[in-house]
Sequence to fold (66 residues):
Amino acid sequence: MSDQVRELIAMTWIAAPPAAFCLLGSAYYAVTSEVWAAVGGLAALWLVVPLFVLDERRRSVGGEPA
Fold:
């Protein structure tokens, strides 16, 4: 085996764990940010939908909209 091949293997062996860690970290961040975006969207619906329901009830009983 030539010295260049050994050096390439050594560099790959040294560089692979940090690269894998970075890839896993960015994948974890992407998944968790999507999860938090979904949670935020559900929370927004949970807050906004009752306002529309209350507004419709107010209109149905003849009250003026706010």
About this structure: The helical segments are 3-60. The radius of gyration is 28 Å. Residues 55 and 61 are 10 Å apart (CA to CA).
